[in-house]
Amino acid sequence: MLQLARAYSAVLFDMDGTLLDSRAVVERVLSEWALANRIDPVSMLAVSHGRRTIDVVREFASADVNCEAEAAKIEAAETADVRGIVAIPGAADLIGKLPPHKWAIVTSAGRDLALRRISAAGLPLPEVLVTAEDIERGKPDPSGYLLAAERLGTNAGDCLVFEDASAGIQAGLNAGSDVVAIGYASADGSKADCPLIPDFRSIDFRLT
Predict the structure, then answer these.
(1) Is 204 tagged catalytic?
(2) Contact 26, 16 (CB under 8 A)
(3) Where are the domains of the chain?
(4) Superfamily of structural domain 2-22+85-207
(5) Which residues contact 83 (CB under 8 A, 6 or more apart)?
(6) Tens of pLDDT along 40-92?
(7) Which phi and psi (to 5°) does residue 58 adopt?
(8) What are residue 161's DSSP bridge partners?
(9) 55 — phi, psi (to 5°)?
(10) What span, in angstroms and rounded, lies between the C-alpha atoms of 113 and 133?
(11) 14, 21, 55, 164: which one is catalytic?
């Protein structure tokens, strides 16, 4: 059990790999798109975790590809596919104990996709949801976490961030927040310089 000594004004959660496990969907949809575009799906999946779809498409697409249109197609396919999406152990219990004005979700997914996955996992919708459309630069840029803290009426430096991917962990650290990595759905978090726990049943902290 990881026990954090300081108290926090709010909690900021990543979504995919942190609050819910969507690996099956992501692997199906991205692999299909990669193969259709003559891209190695293994290489694409290796760098896609925790990043906006548009950023990943731009990295791999050829110069003649309309990246915005292709990213929209990928997200539409992911929105339509919720097979295998489940909540990370302990996530629902933890969120249920938090006051609604004390937590937010900061995700690299688009809003429609985020709402669909949160619902599919059986988790409550947050009052503050920061998605890919809300920011100009995706993780590891801290914009999403800074915006979420602002919308909650606090400072990111007083927030606790839960993440699972290297890009997201770095975004939280760049925002000045304390970060805890969740390892349930990804080994990616073990690469970061922050505490790592298996799931939300292994954490204890206080809110101010």
Answers:
(1) no
(2) yes
(3) 2-22+85-207, 23-80
(4) HAD superfamily/HAD-like (3.40.50.1000)
(5) 24, 25
(6) 999 998 888 778 889 999 999 888 889 999 999 998 998 899 999 999 999 99
(7) -60, -35
(8) 12, 179
(9) -70, -40
(10) 11
(11) 14
